Amino acid sequence: MGLTIGVIGLGRIGSFHADTLSALPAVDALVVTDANPAATDAAVARLDVARPVSDADALLSAGIDAVVIASATPTHAELIERAVAAGIPTFCEKPIAMSVADSAEVVRRIGGDAPVQIGYNRRFDPAMAAARAAVASGELGFITTVRSTTLDPAPPPKDYIAASGGIFRDCAVHDFDTVRWLLDDDVVEVHAMGGNQGDPFFTEVGDVDSASVLLRFASGTIGAVSVTRYNGRGYDCRLEVHGSTDSVVAGWDDGTPVRNLQPGSGFPSGTPHSFFMDRFAAAYRAELSAFCDMVTDGTPSPCTAADALEVALIAEAAGRSAATRVPVRIDEIRAETTTRTTRVRTTS
Ligand SMILES: NC(=O)c1ccc[n+]([C@@H]2O[C@H](COP(=O)([O-])OP(=O)(O)OC[C@H]3O[C@@H](n4cnc5c(N)ncnc54)[C@H](O)[C@@H]3O)[C@@H](O)[C@H]2O)c1
C-alpha cells in the first residue's frame, strides 16, 4: 500500500507540491488543508487523490503517514513541533522560522533524530548534485572559489517582501544552503552588502532589492553569493565551482538568461528561464521522492533541521553585516542564539 500524505498550505508552492506528490508512485492519497477554503477546494477539484479537512488539527489526526508543511513561514515552527510530537514524519518548506533564535529553539525541542526534512530543493538539482560529487571526489583539487547566483526576474508584491524577513532570509538562504552542502564545510565569516535601485517599497520595509555576500569557509574556500529581485532577462540560478585542478558549473543550459556577446558563439540559444518552478521542477520531484523514501525506508533526512539552522545563522550574519558594513563571524551569532535559547528555556 502506498502512502497517505497530508499537505498543509496550498498556495504557490503547496499546490505545486500537492500536484507533484499526486504523481509519485509511492503516494496513494493526499489529505489537504489551507486557511483559505478556496485553495483547499481548488486542490480537491484538481486532484482525484486529494480529500479536504478543515484545518491542521484535523489533518494531523487524520491517520496520515507523513505531512508536507507548505503554509506561510510564521506557521512552520509550531506545525513542525506538533507533527513531530505526533510521531509523523515531516517535510517543511524553508525556513524553519523567521528568526534564528526561534529556529534554534525548534531544533532543540524536536531533537537531532526527528524524521524532518527541510525544503532546500537545490540539493536535488542533477547538475548541482554532480558538482557536489565532483568536489567530494577530489577531482577539482582544493576549492578556491564557489559562486552561487539567484537572480529573480521581477520582485514579488510589497506585502510579500514586508513579511519575508528580507532578501537574505527569503532568497539568499537557498544559495547559503547550496554552497555549504556542496563543500561539506561550515561558514565562519560573512561580509554582505545590499543595494536598492528598484521600487522604493524595499527601503520602506527595511529590505534591499539586490545583495552580494562573501562567505569565508573553515577550509579557506571563499564563497560569493549574488541575489537580486530585478533580473529582467529571466530567472538565473547558477553555481560555479573553481578548484586548483579543474572547474565545473551547474545551471548553464540553453535557457540561461544571459546575452552572450562573444563573437561567433551562439550559446545560450533557447528561451530564457523565467520562473523557479519550471527551472527546478525535476528537483522538487526528486526532493519529495526522497522524502517518501525517508518515510517508507527510514533513510536519513537529506536536509535536516540542524542543516537549516546553520543556514539561518548565515542569513542572520549577512543581514547584520549589510546593516553595519562590517564582517560578522558565525560564532558570534551562534553564541548569542545559544544564550538566548538557554534564557528562554530557564525562564519558561
Ligand atoms: N523551496 C522553495 O523553492 C520555496 C519556494 C516558494 C516558497 N517557499 C516557502 O514556502 C512557504 C509558502 O510560500 P508560498 O510562496 O507558497 O506562499 P503563499 O502565500 O502563496 O501560500 C501560503 C499558503 O499558506 C496558507 N496558510 C497560512 N497559514 C495557514 C495555516 N495555519 N494552515 C493552513 N494554511 C495556511 C495561506 O492561506 C496560503 O494559501 C514559505 O515559507 C516560503 O518560504 C519555498
TrEMBL record:
The keyword Oxidoreductase applies. One of its GO terms (molecular function) is oxidoreductase activity. Residues 129-248 form the GFO/IDH/MocA-like oxidoreductase domain. The keyword Oxidoreductase applies. Gene3D superfamilies: Dihydrodipicolinate Reductase, domain 2, NAD(P)-binding Rossmann-like Domain. Keywords: Oxidoreductase. Transmembrane segments: none annotated. Residues 4-108 form the Gfo/Idh/MocA-like oxidoreductase N-terminal domain. InterPro entries: Gfo/Idh/MocA-like_OxRdtase_N, GFO_IDH_MocA-like_dom, NAD(P)-bd_dom_sf. Belongs to the Gfo/Idh/MocA family. This is Myo-inositol 2-dehydrogenase. It comes from Gordonia rhizosphera NBRC 16068. The lineage of its organism: Bacteria, Bacillati, Actinomycetota, Actinomycetes, Mycobacteriales.
